[in-house]
Amino acid sequence: METFVDAARACAFLDIKRASLYAYAARGLVRTAPGKDARSRTYHQDDLRRLKARHDARAGHGAVAANALQWGQPVLDSALCRISPTLGPLYRGRAAVTLAQQSHTFETVAQWLWTGEDAPLVPWRAAHLGGDVKHLSAVVSRNASPQRLLAVLVNTLGAGEAARFGTSAPAEMDRARVLVRRLTAGMALHAPKRLVLALEAPGLAHALLVALGGEPSTHAVAAVNQALIISADHELNASAFAARVAASAGAGLHACLSAALAVHSGPRHGGACDQLEALLAAAGRAPRARSTVEAWLASGQQLHGFGHPLYPQGDPRAVQLIELAHRLARGTSRLRLLDAVVDAMAQATGLWPSLDVGLTAVCRALELPVGAPTTLFALGRMAGWVAHTLEQRHSPVLLRPRARYVGP
User: Which residues pair with 306 in a beta bridge?
Assistant: First the structure.
């Protein structure tokens, strides 16, 4: 099914009459958009699937499990994050967007996620990258995407770890602090001077700006710090679940983060930033935004990063980051094209921007290179992946769902 479908297909999918469909829409259970003519409406497929899954859940445990895998019922207990449709993610009860606006650093928020304690901050330091820089530079192309670079670094640094299994939680957290600092600096793998400066930087946000070749002004560091905090966790998202599956099998920290990174690379998740940047490059300038968006959608491609199912009235994370980006870019035209794309998407689909758009806005306002939004997203989400890994280690259960066989 496409992102939006007409009433006939929506009714057939749900096996209901049009009156019921209109009632669902009126109650806000299904998002709608204008149809091909002034009198018709179309209906969002994710909302239709969610309604169908809830209906099917009455059929028994198998249907309940299927519902749980599609934005449905919770499947495990966690004390890490709760999603509020209006506030966004709450990290152990504290709203991420509020934490980002206050004088917290990303490191303190990560520590809060990991421990649930307001303890003194343990420094995040790394004296060196932890691998042969020249060898890694030869292995990884200069044109490699940030996702690929991070994947290579995580696995290479993990290969040198002596103790992978059975380590204590404090030891795991120490390892995570060093690893994330190294990964941040490693974004400057092909610029050795920047890599060294990133390792020496006073904090992670500062280090990331240096590694990406940005200007680490006070305002820029504060903006990147906000973006990292807002990206830190989002409940049981696909990449966090991958990390938990790996952790449940007893995999080491590097392997858990590698599993999460692999999932994060997909365009339906962290790769949505890359997809959006590709569309911006195709449009080139603001007057071409609408035609480019329409051509993209007409080709059958879905533009991810808009219309998050958990935020039917708009993603609070995106709202805060886009407002931040506009303050940073005030008096410039840096966001003109992105704004035009957001407006074109709203007119074409009625969908609101999500986190990916907010991260892209901040990076464009700071004039960071292509690939920076995905980098910000992945490094920020490392805090959540580590938290989910640590929490999952307390469970004796191997995460191993069953499949409903439908073959011959």
Answer: 353
Amino acid, single-letter form, for residue 291 = S
Mark whether 118 is an active-site residue: no
Q: How many CB atoms lie within 10 A of CB 366?
A: 22
Which of 119, 182, 117 is CA-nearest to residue 379?
182
Identify whether the C-beta of residue 321 lies closer than 8 Å to the C-beta of residue 358: yes
Q: Is 44 a catalytic residue?
A: no
Residue 123 sits at φ, ψ, to 5 deg, of -60, 140
Q: Which two tokens stand for residue 164?
A: 């992978």
Q: Which of 233, 308, 315, 388 is catalytic?
A: 308
**How many domains, the chain?**
2
What size, in residues, is the chain? Answer: 408
Q: Which residues form the domain of 34?
A: 4-68
Residue 74 included in any domain = no
Q: Are residues 367 and 391 in the same domain?
A: yes
Q: Per residue in 310-358, pLDDT tens?
A: 998 899 999 999 999 999 999 899 999 999 999 999 999 899 999 999 9
In terms of Cα–Cα distance, which of 73, 97, 95, 69 is closest to 82?
95
Contact call for residues 193 and 140 (beta carbons, < 8 A) = no
Instruction: Mark whether 131 and 222 lie in a shared domain.
Output: yes
Residues 56 and 125 in one domain: no
User: Among the options 254, 304, 356, 388, which is catalytic?
Assistant: 356
pTM for the whole structure: 0.84
CATH number of the domain where residue 224 is located: 1.10.580.10
Same domain, 34 and 128: no
